[in-house]
Amino acid sequence: MSAKETKKISIIEKSLKLFSKKGFYNTTIPDIAKAMKMSVGNMYNYFPSKEELAKCAIKYSTNVLAQDLREVNNMDISSKEKIYEFTRKYFKRVKKTPEIIEYFLRVYLSNREVFNQGCEGFLCVGEFVTEVMILLDEGAAKKEFRDQDFFAAFGMFMGSLGGFAFLSGEKVLEKDLLDYSDLIAENIYRALKYEE
Amino acid sequence: MRNKPKVVWIQALTCNGNTQSLLSSNASRFEQFLNQFELVYHPSLTHHTTLNDVLQSNASYDFLLIEGALTSNTQFLTLSDQSSTAIVEKLIKRSHYVIAVGSCASYGGVHAKFEHNDDVVGVQSVVGKKSACKSGHDTINLTGCPVHPEWILQTLYTLKAKGNIALDDEQRPIELYSHLAHHGCTRNEYFEWKVESKSFGLKEGCLFYEQGCRGPMTHSSCNKILWNDTSSKTRVGMPCIGCTETDFPRENMLETKKNIGIPAEVPLGISKRAYLSLTGIAKTFKIERLIGKLIDENR
Ligand code: SF4
Ligand code: SF4
């Protein structure tokens, strides 16, 4: 990776933290430049605008999740076990780099106007959505999951994970997040599972 | 080859569809065919020769064209008091080239689904892949239900001129079966942007997800060599049902099998992951030009 690419990634990682803590509008390019110990002018060499940075950040963060899910998809285990595996990975991610999930929940989902030019629909989150499709398609093809509407299944899967990450962010959970992992995975599995 | 090669066309278990198709060929092409070939025998087109004449003569023929599936079981089919398999076995030795015309002759087709006779097969199963005909040329499968008339004529002309024809793994002429029905379909742009047709017979939309179109998985030149020189199934809004492939006829032919909304099979040559990511993105675009009617007279 070129030096410029590496720098871009560290800017994205820093801004994910700032955006998810302070929100999109309350975080300015000078804030990010300051955190990066860079000049504002130099920042623009990497990203022409805050919107552009926000779009790169959503691609970056969902690609991290896509990578996690791709690893699980490539494992030689049942679809049920894949759900358990990914839930564990996801919750570990929430603990280790909460900004990745928070950014999705607090910036991407709540500031749609920032993303509707050039990041419409699945354009910036496509890699992750594709992996969810692979997981669901394989499960249904093997008759582990029942056939149902894609969005109903997708919403069930991501809604549970995202919602729970949100509860964790709000610090309302009684136990450690990972203690809930298998319980949540079981709930997701039951919502998807094949019934005679 | 002699100036006027001799053609014998026999029919076994068939609906006569490929004959109908031949008769629907471009009129001048058909005339040309009749002028350049000698149609010695065809059960519905010739009157001066009978199947018995053909069987009893010692003459050799240039082309043995077989329409329909074969069976050795005389309970189900006899022609001149013999089974269709026996007739083919005899004639093949006296013919230069063996051509299975249509899907039933190629693989047994719809007749092979008949449960009470498990001996319904395609020509190749009787004469072998390396055919025992005089030229030793592989058995040629002209698949299709029915086969396009021009594919029959082109095959005959190629063999007449060159003496052989290159075949794919399914023994079909490469020249005719390398394209997919999807190639040249006028709906390709709709396919690209995932705009589906609302029902049969419309000009607008692709027929892949909702109507079961097999165009992207079916080897045929239906949209390159148009039917009646004019059109094709997909052009008029009827999905391709994959009639040139070995698995024809399949179950639920007008349906694309889906798991949780995701097609079980994706177009030939692309991985499912790559196809799904392209599709997911393409679907999110709303292209006004592709959503409305192509021709809206009330506008
Ligand atoms: S209608 Fe069938 S052949 Fe035509 S573009 Fe769609 S999938 Fe391809
Ligand atoms: S479009 Fe498909 S189903 Fe129709 S004739 Fe061609 S290959 Fe057969």
From TrEMBL, chain A:
UniProt source species: Candidatus Marinarcus aquaticus
Annotated DNA-binding residue span(s): 28-47
Keywords per UniProt: DNA-binding, Membrane, Transmembrane, Transmembrane helix
InterPro entries assigned to the protein according to its UniProt record, in alphabetical order: Homeodomain-like_sf, HTH-type_Tx_Regulator, HTH_TetR
Keyword Transcription regulation: no
A Pfam short name: TetR_N
PROSITE patterns recorded: HTH_TETR_2
Superkingdom field: Bacteria
Higher taxonomy: Bacteria, Pseudomonadati, Campylobacterota, Epsilonproteobacteria, Campylobacterales
Protein name per the record: TetR family transcriptional regulator
Keyword Transferase applies: no
Ranges of residues in domain HTH tetR-type: 5-65
A molecular function (GO) term: DNA binding
Bilayer-spanning residue ranges: 150-169
From TrEMBL, chain B:
GO terms for MF: 3 iron, 4 sulfur cluster binding; 4 iron, 4 sulfur cluster binding; electron transfer activity; ferredoxin hydrogenase activity; metal ion binding
Origin superkingdom: Bacteria
Annotated ranges, domain NADH:ubiquinone oxidoreductase-like 20kDa subunit: 15-158
Binding residue positions for [3Fe-4S] cluster: 222, 240, 243
Binding-site residues for [4Fe-4S] cluster 2, renumbered to this chain: 182, 185, 206, 213
Pfam hit, one: Oxidored_q6
Keyword Iron-sulfur: yes
Any one annotated GO CC term: cell envelope
UniProt-listed GO biological process terms: anaerobic respiration
Key words of the record: 3Fe-4S, 4Fe-4S, Iron, Iron-sulfur, Metal-binding, Oxidoreductase, Signal
Subcellular location: Cell envelope
Binding site for [4Fe-4S] cluster 1: 15, 104, 145
UniProt domain Cytochrome-c3 hydrogenase C-terminal: residue ranges: 177-252
Cofactor(s) needed: [4Fe-4S] cluster
Family that this chain belongs to: Belongs to the [NiFe]/[NiFeSe] hydrogenase small subunit family.
Self-association and partners: Heterodimer of a large and a small subunit.
Protein name per its UniProtKB record: Ni/Fe hydrogenase
